[in-house]
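Here is the promised in-class demo. Please do not try to memorize the tokens; focus on the logic of going from shape to residues.
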């Protein structure tokens, strides 16, 4: 209420000082004053949220974050698969090549 009284005092002093301006300027300033008073008069205190509204906000935020985290995990998995599968495949091929060389049956020399 104190803010509204200050605005009224300000508006009254501006209206009194409008007599020094040209007629077109008076209209413009008067319109600006009325608009500014109208905007500040409509400014109300925010209404506190109910428990249901708070839960809805929490649900919407968590749903968005879960979707975002799933997408990030999918991209990370695809990136890791490209790197790790190649390394694993190379190690399997390398192990297979060394194992086949070692596991070939060795023949004993034939003694006459």
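The designed amino acids, position by position:
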């Amino acid at each position: 209420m104190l803010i509204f009284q200050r605005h009224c005092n300000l508006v009254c002093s501006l209206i009194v000082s409008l007599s020094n301006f040209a007629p077109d300027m008076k209209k413009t300033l008067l319109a600006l004053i009325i608009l500014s008073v109208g905007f500040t008069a409509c400014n109300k205190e925010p209404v506190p949220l109910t428990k249901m509204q708070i839960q809805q906000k929490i649900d919407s935020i968590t749903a968005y974050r879960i979707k975002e985290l799933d997408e990030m995990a999918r991209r990370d998995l695809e990136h890791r698969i490209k790197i790790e599968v190649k390394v694993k495949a190379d190690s399997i091929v390398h192990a297979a090549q060394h194992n086949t060389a070692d596991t070939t049956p060795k023949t004993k020399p034939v003694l006459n």
